[in-house]
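Second attempt. The first submission of Methionyl-tRNA formyltransferase had a stray character pasted in from the spreadsheet, which I only caught after the job came back as garbage. Lesson logged: always re-copy from the clean sequence file. Corrected sequence (329 aa) follows.
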Amino acid sequence: MKIIFFGTHTLATAILHALMQEPALKICAVVTQPDKPAGRGYKAESPLIKRFAENAGLQVLQYKKLNDDAVATLRAYDADVFIVAQYGILIPETILSIPGHGTLNVHPSLLPNYRGASPIQSAILAGDTKTGVTIMLLDKEMDHGSVLSQEECTIDKSDTAVTLEAKLGRLGAILLIATLPRFVHGEITPREQDHTEATVCKKIKRDDGRIDWTQSAEHIYRMWRAYLPWPGIFTMWNGKRLKLMRCVILESRLVGTIGSRRDAIARPGASLQHDSKFGTPFLTPDKNLAISCGAGAIIVERLQLEGKKELDADAFLRGSATFVGAKLG
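This time the job returned cleanly.
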């Protein structure tokens, strides 16, 4: 079976790798987004899947726009089916309809829940305890097509977007490989989604990671889990962006299990007890750095101040004597 694969990120790369191990499947080409500037130097960076595919000897196609030239190129491969996962661009009907068996999508949610660009992050932010993968037929609307198969996946309390994406990538690959031959041989009847139950998640922006300290510690911890590694979560201190690189909920752990003593670190006169003001750093009785929230508090284990390197909380406090008792925003 000849396949053209559309994808860009980590989950897509995991699924492509799994398809390549199947003797009955041939990957004719991989379509991905163009290289984009990244990092401080804004140098062009290739998508993860491009680097993987080229290392594997696969042909890679990159389009800024899926125009008539793209249609002609893709049609020439005479593929049996197109597979899409985390491509990130809406594909027009002129391309979806090219292969004889249509275009299948691997979507990391239990559709019709979380249609859109951020289903993994949205499930974590909502506090869901389960999510899953849907194999579906693509149509002209976003994540709207009929369902071929679905499989659930548990969201652990410690799961981040990184770990959950890895889980769903493995699950999606297994489900796709099981579904694809059954669908092609007419053994699966596509099931229309219940569109009245559909929920849509937005594209994540950098400023979505800004912390509102009136929110609960539980909510802020979910933000940290959902926005790892990008955009991360941050607050403002002395006019600079301060990223919280690793944190946990104060109430969810045994006091004294991390960090060293900080008796000499807090500035003179700073309270070592919980300050009721939202967004106020304080030291717990066992001298761990914490920040008060609308309900509860979080312990911060690693931080990075704008323009500086990432530090553990001990090292950060040694160089920031006025931090405890300050007001963050």
